[in-house]
Amino acid sequence: MLPHLFRPIQIGHLTVKNRLMMSAMSINFGVDDHCHVTDQLIAYFVARAKGGAGMMLVGGGSVHPGGQELPDLPQMYEDGCIPALRCMVDQIRPYGVRFGVQLMHGGRQSYLPEKVAPSAIPAPAVVKGEVRALTVGEIRDLVTCFGDAARRCREAGFDFVEIHGAHGYLINQFMSPNANVRTDEYGGSFDNRTRFLFEILADIQAKAGADFPVGIRINGNDYMANGWELTDALTLAPLLESAGAAYLHVSAGVYGSTELTIPSMYTPQGCFVHLAEAVKQVVDIPVITVGRIKDPVHADQIIADGRADMVALGRSFLADPEYPKKARTGRIDEIRPCVGCCLGCIHAVLAKEPGGCVVNPDVGREYLLTSGETAGEPAGSPGRPSVKPSVNPPVRVLVAGAGPAGLAAARECALAGHDVVICEQKDVSGGLLNLASKAPGRGELGDILRFFDRALTRLDIRVRYQTPLTKELLDEVSPDHVVLATGSLPQMPVIKGLFTTSMALVTGVDVMAGTETAGQQVIVLGGGMAGLIVADFLADQGKSVTVLNRKKSFAEQMSANDRYYLRENLKKKDVTLYKQVAIQAVTSDGVIFTCKGEKTTLSGFDTVVISEKYEAVRAAKSLEKTSSARFHLIGDAKSPRHLMYCISEAHELALSL
Q1: Whether 323 is catalytic
Q2: Which of 111, 169, 186, 247 is labelled catalytic?
Q3: What is the tens place of the pLDDT at every residue in 596-632?
Q4: Per CATH, the architecture of 9-368 is what?
């Protein structure tokens, strides 16, 4: 099973047990006031070391306080960090994983009030603020900072380090013409723009030892005008090999690039593999590829085809720390999938909040869990996995609703050893998420639903379809707890003329479900996530769509990365967007509204799709007074929000029973 992925590989003098690397991620938790690592970050990595990774990288290892990318990342810039790092290494070592640190300086992409860069050019996106150009003396000081940081990593017991020369951070800024307009020895020619990187590599080798493996992450393409391109990477790669680099880790993108460094579900899986494949043709050292590689069969094929020597996964290790172990033992169907939403892993982090994962609420809480596994199902027989021990005695749980919240709750409760019954009013599971997965580019949302369905099958729990929650069902099941995961439905707005218009009046839910059809000229009321998704769904069918959004921003519930690709999709189709709209009236074939104080009348439409506010469906809560069971509201039944809340609330509830 997957013979190429689980074949050992040599990185410098290190033998790595398989070809799976957990790439560096700036997770933004697990450090104290001095940015020294704590038990929280240690437990996070221990969970993934147990899961069978071949190599792992600590992300965001700052070499200088003036280059700290985010506030809660581990620092490597003073010797006081070494004891905590050594403690972390000691707890990882028993699991046979090669453990390293990615060393970086954020440059103009640092979240600091005072930012430095090769030139006084602000970051093109995300991070705002003035930037000061480094002096030559400061550049040389930073070279020594990288070397000193690597020496500390070796003293702490790490196996290797990786220099972050990609993604628009400081080293990449030096190499990219659009960020570096210097006229001294660090700017202008290719040799001058790459000088900083080579000086860093030499300083690390001098201080950490020539036998200490140093990998380098480079961009295969910045995807920016006048930026670093693949031809540059192909020139650089053999030079880095000659200079002693142990491996090259090829990625892409910077803040504001047309192809995002952390792409969402809209991009093809393996979107950057072609860049690593090209680099591999010009070097003999191992080349690592990255970029939405979530399927282990796909990963194995990349290596089998000689396109790369190793595969780096980031978000997949967040979603399921046991990804390698499950893949190696043929339990691929049990891997909890990343859905590419970018909400917990990047959107939260860029908001300077702790990172997390929509599908795995345990991320960052591993140190609080004293029993069971941190993610996925515990190892057990192929037919039925063993269950997580429960602090409390088993109870009977009736879950009403087989959407993502209900399915997650049923799975977690069953794994805790409780007796679970699920009822669903409709004849299919998945709720609104099942409908959202039908939209263009959003099919991977269905992956988590299929994961839950397979888990419930292994746990011998079936969904009783076309079965609403009633008093009779309560009497039959006699539950101790009732989980209301009954979801939400579109709320009809009160707008003059809406219910007397000649246009067809339908909801986004009905359109996505196929129970109603829209005409060719469509108005969508609502510019949130649901509104834009249904607009894309309809425009993909060749319809002309106009979206009216009352708010200042579109799709605020989505991560910026996910929203970017959706907005780019809409630009290619017949979709017109209005925001900050105040609707005055709906006419027989259109609508009258003001937008930023200007009155607009639209006509010639045949359909109005309601996809604005959603309201919780919780009528079944009235049954609480007829039952001795304790009722709980989770997911949209509690309050309509995004998927992260649905799954995390289900998880919390199961832990509390």
Answers
A1: no
A2: 169
A3: 889 999 999 999 999 999 999 999 999 999 999 999 9
A4: Alpha-Beta Barrel (3.20)
